[in-house]
Structures are given as C-alpha cells and as structure tokens.
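Observation: inputs received (chain + alpha-D-ribofuranose).
Thought: call the complex predictor directly.
Action: predict_structure
Action Input:
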Amino acid sequence: MPKVVVVGSLNMDLIVRAPRRPATGETVMGDDFRILPGGKGLNQAVAAARQGAATAMIGRVGDDDFGRRFLAFLDSEGIDRSGVRTTPDCATGVGIVTLAGGDNAIIVAPGANMRLTPDEAANLPLAAGDVCVGQFEVPLAATEAAFRRARDAGAVTILNAAPAQALPGALLEVVDILVVNEIELATLSGAPISQSSGAAEITAAARGLLRGDRLVIATLGARGAMAVSREGLHEVTGHVVPVIDTTGAGDCFVGAFAAALAGGCDRLSALARANAAASLSVQRPGAAPAMPTAAELHEGLSRTH
Ligand code: RIB
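Observation:
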C-alpha cells in the first residue's frame, strides 16, 4: 500500500490559555499551561498515521529532552522515524502558542528544524503512488529536494504553504497539490484575500496558482474548504462543532488528505474526509494529540450523513 512521507518540522508546543492576549508591555494572567508535541510536519504525520497510512517522518530534533520526547512519541504513533536525525548542540524547535477567544497565535523558534539538509531529503524511499508532504518550517531547499525526488519516483507532492511566505518558482513547479489558508493564499497570489473574502475572490486567486493538473485547496476554517482545478471548483462546507482549540486544524486537514490519497481515494473524497477530520481535531486540546483516528473519522462521517 502507498505510504505518506512527511518532510517537516517538529516543535514542542508550549501552550498557554488566557482570557485575552497582552498588549505590548502588558502582562496578562493565563489560566492553563501545557507542553504538547506539535510542529506542522509532525502534526501532519500524526494525522496521516492515525488515519491508517504507513507514515514516515523526515526532520531534525535537538539533543535535548524535547528531542527525546519526540522520538518516543513518533514510536508510540507507529511513525517510521529513521529519517529523523538528532542534531548536537542545537535545541529542538518550540512553538509558543497562546490561546485566547477560541483562536491561537503562535511564535516558532525553529532550532534543529532549520538544520535539515537537501541531501537528507533527496534520497527518500519513495515509490509510485506514495504521497510526499512538505510545509515551510524547514529549509525550502530540503523541501524542494524531497519533491524532486518524489516527482522522479512517480509520487504525489502536497505543499502546505504555511506559515505564509513567498514561494520560489522552482519549488512551486514540483507541487501537485497546494494547500493554503486565506493568509497564505493572499501571500502567494498577491490578491487581497482575508477571512471575509467571498467564494469568487478566493476562486480567482486560487486559479492564478494553477498549472497543468495541479489542485489548489483553500482551507477556510469553520467555513470549510474550496478546491480549484482546471476542471472547476469543488466546495465542502465546515461542520458546526464546539471548538476547544484550533491549533493544528490545518495540519490535520493536510495529513488526513494525504492519507486518503495514499489509501486510494480520489481527490474529492479525500477533500471531504480531510474537512471532517479537521472538524474533529478542533474539539480537543493541542495539535498532534488532537488528531482523530480512522475509527473516530468513520463515526464522525456516519453522523453527518
Ligand atoms: O500548525 C500548528 C503548528 O504550528 C503548531 O503545532 C506549532 O508548533 C507550529 O508549527
């Protein structure tokens, strides 16, 4: 069965919940603090593995307690970590997450993530039908090397262009499926897209990023997602659920989507599964620990049909 290979970041998330965020120079008392595994790459790998996909992670951790905790966590999730190297004299990446008013704001200190080299990504054990997933929290050169290798092997490449930054043309060239939120779509397209943009504006901006058979997916939080390809537009509406923590919801979408493709789903069924999986993840605290299992997704989907 095809596998999912995630080339990406591992950040230990230091999460504080507070009634509101402080203004510059102000101190606000929070009411809950947790340390949980995260990082966009790791979250996506966990989301894929919990959906039953054979999953491998390629990345770097530091030679410290957080790094060792990640290695044990990857083992406990059944994720192949032979491509995760421990980097001496370097801290494991961390995400400083503030939760306020049902939403999150994050600062990442990438540490070891930025030591990933193109060489480590250039020889991935990929085969036709596998799915290779990347994001922007490791060096772009490593992601590009992985995607070139994936293309040579006949694997599908999915780029989650997060966090938002300009995308070099050479990397975009080797992307089969591009997943962006509103901010990332605005950054890549140059269009003034925001959370209040309508379907027509989002579709027009996404169309500008199409090449050949590429699929561009805009994830729109509670509004659901829109997928644009040369065949046209396909929309999935968001599920109305009680939200506990939105951290990693986009990562859940990407990982579940990749797992569905690896499992043989077509792109539109994968979209529906990913949308439903993300709506389950926001109902639990944390990023990686909140990813739903295949059984939970099955139950969630049967409740909504
Ligand atoms: O997408 C959520 C993730 O972004 C967090 O887990 C944090 O570590 C940052 O990478």
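Thought: report the result.
Final Answer: The two ends are 28 Å apart (CA to CA). Residues 267-281 form the longest helix (15 residues).
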